[in-house]
């Protein structure tokens, strides 16, 4: 009888009209069946808050009803989390950021690893695959073009490439003056290794702003080379798909290959 | 005992090789003057030999310069300082190398198989025949005239070109393809099995399947064999028997399939080196490898299509999918047909038919997923095109169910 009275009362109908679904977000330790508060887990290992950029819903009315618990960051939060990567891009080429040639959404995707939030948000895996293939191709072409220098002076013989007679013999089997044997040099092979790419990624401070989920607290302090290398590959992939091969090749040669070449 | 294993054809070849060796012993076919005599046949040969002679002169000049520099350095240095570690290459050594190179190039020019393969592939003139011979020479099969001139470095370079251009083609044509399907599709164009098919059945490259004893007895650099794919075949270890020649089974050995694939990849590398144009190389890859038909939709296999579709709809901010029966016939008969469609709000995502309601529902979900993943933009531009614009669609990543 009590239930019937409650349902028949005007306050019940008022409640139904204002609240479609009552959702309580749980924070703290995980509880079975409880929805977790996104503010609790959408945080990078270094403590930066993840603020997803939500597209305008294609069916606004329906999505409001069914996905009222969906988390979406405020514009200020989004800009705050993208600051480090934007400043890096700005230092390379101011037009990239000033003229919005790379969207905020793509920038965030570069920094998001597949492990973050169970792949719910756009992540960088596919970008890194195409990015690495392009990096490899560009690096190989760059390497064989470096072998184009003709032997005209003493400096050529003092180059490590021709110190031994064995390597000199390879010179006699150049193809259109390109020395393909250079690709097997140790320093050339090492450039494309995961550890070297991770090293570059760390030097560009990407590791601090990366969104990923470590398996444990100990894992944060480990090398995690694969994850850091993937950011760099994804960055190249994103540039390739948005700006084209010519610009990306210029980017790789200017920022990745040549600075290292000078050090060597 | 070993001679008993020889076939009649190989015996003929053996006698020829003995003849050629005896001729070469008397000064035939080796001296540059005789080589020049051969060069009068075609102007191309003349050019190669002239280039080689220039090369000899160039190296001599370098050595002279080097000696002069070295002498001046010694003069300038104090008597107590350590001597330079770099030793100049002797004139005799350079002469030997260049003579061998001339011989190798000259032999390649006489090879009918190389000439026909060059014409068949419509390779540019700058793609020289001795380079093509190098593409067909796998590790372990280099000869005394062409040491260090195998195709391993070329194949390594060619692989990177092929891998990139195939991936670029697929990612431009199908921007939403899941990563696993993309990897399988790339394999369907670039795996050793496929490249073997391209080389053997499309390009007509023949493998040199001679017996090991033939290799030991014949003149390895004869022009005929230079046009064949030359590799060290991987053999099973034979039992210790003094009647058989022992072969190194691990080092530098390969299968015919791998050897053919490496030949294709190295031809791509030399194509780039000779044209020095990435766009030309891309055209060559599109003409010979990407022209093969691949049904990408057949690569899909879904474990939980209905669940995957609902996760996908949630990610793309679409209404949850609902399956509806569009039409049916013969529900009570032996062979009923149900046509089901998956809808998100008023939009139909996919449709299919089956003989049961459950199967029709699953098939409709699969059709909807395929419609999404196999989306292909009209006349897309590749990122490597000069006039590339607008930016390609960047996929969010695979749906994790």
What does this structure look like?
The complex is a heterodimer of chains A (264) and B (401). Chain A contains 15 helices and 2 strands. By secondary structure, chain A is mainly α. Chain A has a two-stranded parallel sheet. The longest helix of chain A has 22 residues. The N terminus of chain B is likely disordered. Chain B is built from 15 helices and 3 strands. The chains are: A mainly alpha (264), B mainly alpha (401).
Helix % of chain B is 40-55%
Structural classification of chain B: mainly alpha
According to CATH, the homologous superfamily of the domain at 112-236 and 248-295 in chain B is Ribonuclease III domain
* Average pLDDT taken over every residue of chain B: 78
**CATH classification, class level of the domain at 112-236 and 248-295 in chain B:** Mainly Alpha
CATH fold name of the domain at 116-263 in chain A, please? Answer: Ribonuclease iii, N-terminal Endonuclease Domain, Chain A
CATH architecture of the domain at 112-236 and 248-295 in chain B: Orthogonal Bundle
Described by strand count, sense and barrel closure, the largest sheet of chain B is:
3 strands, antiparallel
Which blocks of ≥5 consecutive residues of chain B have pLDDT under 50? 1-45, 78-86
CATH class of the domain at 116-263 in chain A: Mainly Alpha
Major sheet summary line of chain A: 2 strands, parallel
Structural class of chain A: mainly alpha
Please state roughly what percent of the residues of chain B sit in beta strands, choosing from under 5%, 5-15%, 15-25%, 25-35%, 35-45% or over 45%: 5-15%
Q: In the CATH classification, which architecture of the domain at 116-263 in chain A applies?
A: Orthogonal Bundle
What do the pLDDT scores of chain A average to? Answer: 73
Pfam families (chain A): Ribonucleas_3_3
Protein name (chain A): RNase III domain-containing protein
Domain RNase III (chain A): 188-244
GO molecular function, one term (chain A): structural constituent of ribosome
């Amino acid at each position: 009888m009590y239930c019937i009275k409650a349902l028949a009362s005007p306050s019940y109908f008022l409640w139904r009209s204002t609240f479609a679904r009552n959702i309580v977000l749980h924070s703290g330790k995980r509880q079975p069946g409880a929805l977790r508060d996104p503010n609790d887990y959408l945080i990078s290992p270094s403590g930066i808050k993840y603020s997803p950029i939500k597209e305008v819903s294609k069916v606004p009315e329906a999505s409001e009803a069914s996905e009222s618990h969906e988390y979406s960051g405020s514009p200020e939060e989004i800009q705050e989390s993208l600051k480090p990567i934007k400043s890096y891009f700005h230092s390379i080429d101011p037009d990239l950021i000033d003229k919005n040639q790379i969207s905020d959404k793509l920038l965030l995707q570069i920094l998001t690893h597949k492990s973050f939030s169970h792949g719910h948000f756009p992540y960088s895996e596919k970008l890194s695959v195409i990015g690495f293939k392009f990096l490899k191709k560009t690096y190989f072409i760059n390497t064989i073009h470096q072998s184009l220098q003709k032997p005209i002076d003493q400096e050529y013989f003092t180059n490590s490439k021709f110190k031994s007679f064995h390597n000199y013999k390879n010179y006699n089997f150049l193809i259109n003056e390109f020395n393909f044997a250079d690709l097997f040099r140790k320093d050339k092979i090492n450039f494309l290794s995961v550890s070297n790419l991770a090293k570059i990624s760390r030097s560009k401070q990407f590791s601090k702003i990366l969104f990923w989920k470590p398996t444990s607290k100990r894992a944060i302090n480990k090398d995690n080379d694969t994850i850091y290398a993937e950011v760099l590959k994804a960055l190249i992939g994103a540039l390739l798909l948005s700006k084209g091969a010519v610009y990306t090749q210029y980017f790789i040669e200017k920022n990745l290959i040549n600075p290292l070449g000078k050090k060597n | 005992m070993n001679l008993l294993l020889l076939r009649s054809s190989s015996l003929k070849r053996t006698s020829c090789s003995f003849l050629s060796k005896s001729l070469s012993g008397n000064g035939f076919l080796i001296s540059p003057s005789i080589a020049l005599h051969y060069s009068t046949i075609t102007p191309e040969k003349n050019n190669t030999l002239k280039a080689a002679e220039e090369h000899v002169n160039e190296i001599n000049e370098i050595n002279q310069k080097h000696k002069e520099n070295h002498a001046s350095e010694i003069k300038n240095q104090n008597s107590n300082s350590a001597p330079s570690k770099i030793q100049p290459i002797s004139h005799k050594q350079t002469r030997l190398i260049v003579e061998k190179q001339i011989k190798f190039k000259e032999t390649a020019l006489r090879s009918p198989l190389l000439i026909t393969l060059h014409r068949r592939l419509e390779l540019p003139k700058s793609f020289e025949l001795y380079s093509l011979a190098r593409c067909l020479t796998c590790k372990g099969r280099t000869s005394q005239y062409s040491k260090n001139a195998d195709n391993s470095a070329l194949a390594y370079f060619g692989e990177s070109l092929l891998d990139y251009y195939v991936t670029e083609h697929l990612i431009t044509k199908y921007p939403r393809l899941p990563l696993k399907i993309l990897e399988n599709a790339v394999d369907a164009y670039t795996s050793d099995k496929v490249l073997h098919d391209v080389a053997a059945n499309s390009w007509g490259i023949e493998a040199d399947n001679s017996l090991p004893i033939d290799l030991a007895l014949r003149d390895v650099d004869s022009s005929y064999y230079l046009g064949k794919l030359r590799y060290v075949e991987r053999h099973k270890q034979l039992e210790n028997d003094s009647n058989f020649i022992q072969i190194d089974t691990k080092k530098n050995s390969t299968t015919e399939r791998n050897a053919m694939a490496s030949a294709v990849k190295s031809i791509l590398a030399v194509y780039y080196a000779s044209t020095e144009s990435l766009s030309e190389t891309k055209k060559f890859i599109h003409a010979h490898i990407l022209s093969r038909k691949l049904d990408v939709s057949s690569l899909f296999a879904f474990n939980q299509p209905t669940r995957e579709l609902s996760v996908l709809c949630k990610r793309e901010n679409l209404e949850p999918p609902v399956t509806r029966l569009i039409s049916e016939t013969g529900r009570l008969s032996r062979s009923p047909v149900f046509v089901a469609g998956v809808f998100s709000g008023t939009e139909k995502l996919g449709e299919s038919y089956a003989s049961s309601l459950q199967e029709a529902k699953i098939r409709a979900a699969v059709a909807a997923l395929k419609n999404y993943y196999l989306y292909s933009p009209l006349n897309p531009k590749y990122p490597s095109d000069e006039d590339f614009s607008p930016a390609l669609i960047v996929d969010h990543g695979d749906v994790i169910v």
